[in-house]
């Protein structure tokens, strides 16, 4: 029989309580991995069949998991759709956050926005086309994305005006012009980029159109 002194027990307890020694539980990692699989499958299903075809059953089939698995991770279909929209938001946020906060100009904001759109172009085009059929929470996320882009665009425009490289323009009109322009091309991507990517084929053209408007 091994007898441990109080001092030994105390030292062992201290070691187990040391910060940085905890590791994610296997069940937690598995749960996170399954949720990620469902989101990625949802993105594929939406790209192929649209949001109308992105039923919880279809997404479960795409992962090879039981239908009930979806509801372990999402309260309902609306919550799953909102998670898909959040993927676009994350890409957009990462691109915008990477910009220099106090020095970037309009051109850099447009580049970042186009890169983010290109990463989820098919999904975003579906969002625009099927917006009225989306749950209100998902539509609110789309509006928030556009507002975030508009905010960075207005800040950059003010800097460019101060530098003398852009003319003054109503900031709300500027935001609306850019959002309307990109949305128009994406909603009609079969006309502007048949079988291809609007961002890849027309991104430079879109950027040039807005910069031409801002020429001093």
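^ Assign residues to that structure.
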């Amino acid at each position: 029989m091994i007898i441990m002194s109080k001092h030994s027990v105390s030292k062992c307890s201290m070691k187990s309580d040391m910060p940085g020694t905890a590791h994610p539980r296997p069940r937690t990692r598995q749960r996170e991995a399954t949720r990620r699989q469902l989101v990625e499958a949802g993105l594929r299903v939406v790209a192929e069949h649209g949001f109308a075809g992105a039923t919880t059953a279809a997404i479960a089939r795409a992962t090879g998991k039981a239908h009930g698995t979806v509801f372990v991770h999402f309260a309902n279909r609306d919550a799953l759709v909102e998670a898909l929209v959040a993927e676009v938001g994350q890409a957009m946020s990462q691109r915008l956050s990477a910009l220099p906060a106090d020095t970037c100009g309009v051109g850099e904001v447009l580049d970042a926005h186009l890169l983010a759109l290109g990463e989820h172009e098919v999904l975003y085009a579906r969002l625009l086309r099927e917006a009225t059929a989306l749950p209100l929470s998902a539509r609110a996320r789309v509006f928030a994305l556009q507002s975030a882009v508009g905010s960075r665009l207005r800040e950059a425009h003010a800097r460019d005006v101060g530098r003398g490289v852009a003319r003054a323009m109503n900031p709300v009109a500027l935001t609306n012009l850019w959002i309307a322009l990109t949305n128009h091309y994406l909603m009609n991507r079969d006309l502007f980029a048949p079988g291809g990517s609007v961002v890849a084929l027309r991104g430079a053209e879109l950027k040039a159109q807005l910069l031409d408007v801002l020429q001093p």
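The chain has eleven helices and no strands.
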